[in-house]
Amino acid sequence: MLEASNNNELPPIPGKRYFTIGEVSELCAVKPHVLRYWEQEFPQLKPAKRRGNRRYYQRQDVILIRQIRSLLYEQGFTIGGARQRMEGESGKEDSHYRQLIRQTIVELEEVLTTLRY
């Protein structure tokens, strides 16, 4: 699960509907070739593909990638262990929604701070 401390290291997710692989790479601090590899390893990660096989990620994909990144890089899971952990959590829809709500709250607080000044 994405911890609040991890959120502070990564930039907030902009309010766009679709993100290119380059944008996701910057938002998640992971290189594009790693994202393509993770698509093969994690069945939950399925970005939309359009013209010329270009990948377009949605907000929930970015959050999922941040969660995978946290499991692998910060919590020390192997790819197999992270995959098992993700499959175990896939049945827990409310944890996904809680994560979305937390991210939205962080972004709204940033907007509020900006508007105050």
Give an overview of the whole structure:
The protein has 117 residues and is mainly alpha-helical. The chain has a single domain (4-116), classed as Orthogonal Bundle (Multidrug-efflux Transporter Regulator, Chain: A, Domain 2). It has helices at residues 4-9, 21-28, 32-41, 59-74, 79-89, 93-116; strands spanning 48-50, 54-56. It is built from 6 helices and 2 strands, in the order αααββααα. It is globular.
CATH topology descriptor: Multidrug-efflux Transporter Regulator, Chain: A, Domain 2
Number of strands: 2
Q: Which CATH class?
A: Mainly Alpha
Overall body shape? globular
Q: Gyration radius, to the nearest Å? A: 14 Å
- Please tally the helical runs, counting DSSP H or I stretches of 4 or more residues: 6
**How do the strands of the widest beta sheet line up side by side?**
1-2
Distance between the termini: 33 Å
The biggest beta sheet is recorded as: 2 strands, antiparallel
Order of helical and strand elements: HHHEEHHH
Q: Can you tell me the CATH architecture?
A: Orthogonal Bundle
Low-pLDDT segments: 1-7
Characteristic key phrases:
two-stranded antiparallel sheet, Multidrug-efflux Transporter Regulator, Chain: A, Domain 2, 117 residues, globular, mainly alpha
Describe this structure in a few short sentences.
The chain is mainly α and 117 residues long. Helix content is 64%, strand content 5%.
Topology:
Layout: H1 4-9, H2 21-28, H3 32-41, E1 48-50, E2 54-56, H4 59-74, H5 79-89, H6 93-116
Antiparallel strand pairs: 1-2
